[in-house]
């Protein structure tokens, strides 16, 4: 089972918070992955198609419990992709028009609703339910151990904009992308995805996401520390190589015996410990020296080399 399927399976087990919230959830499910057929005045039929068994069960359960609607389920299997496809049909029947009106999908005498009516998501529970239904119908969430992101795909721009606004209402930052005639509500941040999962009711998944994030954070801290140490080591190694070359120049010129005793001590330490930084070089000196004292001796060595080369010029 994919990570997305696991999340949808958890969401399918979330208990509704009353008839209004259940109607909001079913409304989102129908609007995102369903189609409405019109057969004349007051005659409608609904078809919902999904590849997720949990979504099919939820559509059927809510249709029966909330609106007492008859449904027909057909399970089809793709020979090419070896996957199941679920078709839920809500045929023309008494009560379907009232249900469509109650779900704010249809306005009598005016046609279909485009955005998300405020009265459908009036409470916190209603907003959570609508987002849950929209994600179950058209959502995808990547495995948090990889390139983590969450998205919901819809075909209506007004519905997509409404979902983005609804995400913002519950404290989740989302953006809208247009993709080949459809619209994707896209969320990248770990914090925002965890927040949305909690809002929708997927507390188990949110906990797992938090754990993966903590592991990633530790790994990132370790990697940054290792990279910084390696960079420091490369810089120290490069500086040490330059200092050794400087010592060789002085030795080939005026000679190391021409240097003050403290500077000669620096040259001996550097040759004995070619991989140490100036700070560590001071620690192995006897008596120990501060980084400033070691650096001062390096400057005197550089001055001796420059003076010798100036006299030769």
TrEMBL record:
InterPro entries: Homing_endonucl, Sporu_reg_WhiA_N_dom, Sporulation_regulator_WhiA, Sporulation_regulator_WhiA_C, WhiA_LAGLIDADG_dom. Signal peptide: none annotated. Residues 128-219 form the WhiA LAGLIDADG-like domain. Pfam families: HTH_WhiA (PF02650), LAGLIDADG_WhiA (PF14527), WhiA_N (PF10298). Residues 222-304 form the Sporulation regulator WhiA C-terminal domain. One of its GO terms (molecular function) is DNA binding. Residues 21-93 form the Sporulation transcription regulator WhiA N-terminal domain. Keywords: Cell cycle, Cell division, DNA-binding. The keyword Cell cycle applies. NCBIfam families: DNA_bind_WhiA. HAMAP family: HTH_type_WhiA (MF_01420). PANTHER family: CELL DIVISION PROTEIN WHIA-RELATED. Involved in cell division and chromosome segregation. Belongs to the WhiA family. This is Probable cell division protein WhiA. It comes from Kribbibacterium absianum. The lineage of its organism: Bacteria, Bacillati, Actinomycetota, Coriobacteriia, Coriobacteriales. The gene is whiA.
């Amino acid at each position: 089972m994919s990570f997305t399927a696991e999340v949808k399976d958890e969401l399918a087990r979330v208990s509704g918070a009353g008839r209004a919230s259940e109607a909001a959830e079913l409304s989102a499910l129908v609007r995102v992955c369903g189609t409405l057929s019109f057969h004349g005045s007051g005659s409608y039929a609904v078809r919902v198609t999904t590849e997720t068994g949990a979504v099919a069960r939820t559509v059927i359960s809510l249709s029966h419990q909330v609106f007492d609607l008859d449904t027909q389920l057909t399970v089809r299997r793709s020979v090419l992709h070896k996957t199941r496809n679920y078709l839920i049909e809500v045929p023309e029947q008494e009560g379907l028009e009232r249900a469509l009106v109650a779900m704010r999908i249809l306005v009598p005498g005016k046609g279909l609703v485009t955005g998300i009516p405020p009265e459908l998501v009036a409470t916190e529970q209603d907003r959570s339910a609508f987002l849950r239904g929209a994600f179950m119908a058209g959502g995808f969430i990547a495995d948090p151990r990889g390139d983590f992101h969450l998205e919901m795909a819809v075909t209506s721009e007004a519905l997509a904009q409404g979902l983005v606004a609804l995400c913002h209402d519950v404290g989740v930052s989302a953006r809208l992308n247009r993709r080949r005639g459809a619209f994707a509500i896209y969320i990248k941040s770990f914090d925002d995805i965890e927040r949305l999962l909690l809002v929708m009711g997927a507390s188990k998944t949110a906990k797992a996401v938090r754990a993966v994030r903590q592991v990633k954070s530790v790994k990132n801290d370790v990697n940054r520390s290792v990279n910084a140490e390696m960079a420091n080591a490369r810089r120290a190694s490069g500086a040490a190589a330059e200092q050794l070359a400087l010592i060789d120049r002085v030795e080939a010129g005026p000679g190391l015996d021409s240097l003050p005793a403290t500077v000669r001590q620096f040259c001996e330490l550097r040759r004995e410990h070619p991989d140490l930084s100036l700070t560590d070089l001071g620690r192995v000196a006897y008596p120990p020296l501060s980084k400033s004292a070691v650096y001062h001796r390096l400057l005197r060595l550089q001055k001796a080399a420059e003076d010798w080369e100036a006299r030769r010029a």
